[in-house]
Predict the structure of 2-C-methyl-D-erythritol 4-phosphate cytidylyltransferase.
Amino acid sequence: MIKDYWVIVPAAGIGRRMGADRPKQYLPLLGRPLLSLTLRNILGWSGLAGVVVSLSEQDTYFSHLKEANHPLVHRVIGGAERADSVLSALDFLAQRVSGDTPVLVHDAARPCVSERDIYALLSDNVSSMALLARPACDTIKQSHRVGGETYVEKTVSRENIWLAQTPQRAPLNTLHSCLGKAMEQGVAVTDEASALELFGHSLQLVTGDSDNIKVTHPADIVIAETILRLRYSPTEDKR
Ligand SMILES: Nc1ccn([C@@H]2O[C@H](COP(=O)(O)OP(=O)(O)OP(=O)(O)O)[C@@H](O)[C@H]2O)c(=O)n1
Ligand SMILES: C[C@](O)(CO)[C@H](O)COP(=O)(O)O
């Protein structure tokens, strides 16, 4: 398993789809802020060198988290889009660690990723550029709009269709340069793999669990709480 890797946690979003009174990463899950649970999870991964959390400039919540002053946790100011927030953390790392350092980018909003999936992604047998993902299991429809309504254009074969999760893994210098160039070119990249693909890199897909959900809508809070309740005992919750 690889060691001495860094994890970037983009956590500068506003959680518009959640529609809560604060950014979703600070909503309580099992009585603890979502971002605190995500960081607790990451800080337990073996071989971790450090974590860089990208925060909104207006963030007033982070400093109250248990993990805020952990020696392995660093913070940077994020940007308007997820990619800006990731790039800001990559800029921070590029000034401090060697260019071949493995970097994992993991959404703050995915508190449930399992240790088993992380160790699969970090395995020596896996390519240095890889991501957790799930094969699509529903029937896939392509749509078009007519008069303000949405209609089926066609059914797309789900063979070879995967749903990207995080973490996504790449060497620091490769990801830094690809993401930087993609943004200079004005390409909208919603994950790290897209930026790497754009410049011809081949990424390995590592099958992740379906419980690595991205907390996006209100109902996801209940689902994530259920997953976490099943996984952690009350004693472990004190960490
Ligand atoms: N400018 C942004 C936008 C998003 N993120 C982070 O990227 C992750 C995935 O984004 P998403 O789940 O879409 O979060 P939000 O952008 O906050 O949600 P929404 O799109 O509903 O506003 C989240 O951890 C979010 O905090 C970020 O760091 N900086
Ligand atoms: C990175 C990601 O979580 C992979 O599924 C996703 O692309 C983030 O997308 P969003 O538009 O920020 O929700």
About this structure: The chain has one domain: 5-134+162-238. The pocket of LQXTBERG (ligand 2) is lined by residues 82, 107, 164-166, 190-191, 214 (CB under 6 Å). The first strand starts at residue 5 and ends at 11.
